[in-house]
Amino acid sequence: MLDLRQTPEYAKYMTYIGWVVEKKGNTYYYIKKIPLLGSVLKIQRPLNISYQYINVLAVKYRVFQVIIEPKNTNQISRITYYGYKQSKSPSLPSKTIHIDLTKSGKQMLKEMHYKTRYNIKLGKRSKVKVKSSKNINLFANFWQECARKQRHMFLPQTREIKEIYNAFEKNADLIFVLHSNELVAGILLLHSNNISYYMYAASNADGKKLYAPTICAWEAIKLARKRGSKIFDFEGIYDERFPLKSWKGFTRFKKSFGGHEVEYPGAFVKFRFPI
After folding, report:
1. CB–CB of 188/138 below 8 Å?
2. Is the whole model's pTM more than 0.85, yes or no?
């Protein structure tokens, strides 16, 4: 299946946040200009890679670093043949959870961890309200505040959240969980090529006490199925090959919904002297 990063909507998002987008065949190439240094070129989960076209872009944009994040292991031998080395820090999640949405809701519930099923029931009793929304500004600010308080993440992300929502337009959904009319949890869900992506999610301390993250994720899964998606992609879990300790907590949460793990090869990098 075509990856999210190789869709017209994602290419539009990349232009919104300042990247130059080039296309050859069915593959998008993303270029970030760095003042004085040159440019970075990245190709993410492509079906096909034109190394000749990479060379053309490298000259055109004075590229000093090329990053390829292959879709599968079949592409690795050719990547390494052209001198690319494995990076220790992929920019895309190298491992994720896929939930099969062709199964019945009853079967999906059965395959969850028993505590997750129980938390869904508890959440429904806690008088929270689930609603769809188009208020991306509220969600972006809420996500940023939760990230700051819970993960000490001060790097601004609100622009990226807003722009990806705007780029995907009708293929983006916001799901809010409210308690006493206050937002306590939310998810930005993206849909593309029969896959729904759990792109951004947040919950505050009150929401976690009310099991709002569990309710919100389950509602997102049901919405993805209603939209006709075949796969629900949790968009990233902890990967022992490229360990990030901060990912372990939400990995337990995502795994509790069942599904199966999917691995990607990570990132491969090549440096060159810009001319």
Report:
1. no
2. yes
Greatest CA span in the chain, whole angstroms?
64
User: Which two structure tokens, joined as six digits, stand for 58?
Assistant: 């490298």
Q: CATH 3.40.630.30 residue ranges in the chain?
A: 4-92+265-271, 102-229
In Å, how far from its chain's centre is CA 188?
10
Residues of the chain with pLDDT under 50: none
Say if residue 5 is exposed, middle or buried (CB neighbours under 10 Å; 0-12, 13-18, 19+). Answer: buried
Query: Can you tell me the distance from the alpha carbon of 260 to that of 167, in angstroms, rounded to the nearest whole number?
Result: 29
Q: How much is the pLDDT for 162?
A: 98
Please answer whether residues 147 and 153 qualify as being in contact, where contact means their C-beta atoms are separated by less than 8 angstroms: yes
Task: Give the residue among 229, 189, 203, 167 at the shortest CA–CA distance from 28.
Answer: 167
Indicate if the alpha-carbon torsion angle 209, 211, 214, 215 is positive or negative: negative
User: How many beta carbons lie within 10 A of that of residue 258, not counting itself?
Assistant: 19
Per the CB < 8 A criterion, the answer to whether 119 and 162 are in contact is no
User: Reduced to 3 states, what is the DSSP secondary structure of residue 261?
Assistant: strand
CATH number, domain 4-92+265-271: 3.40.630.30
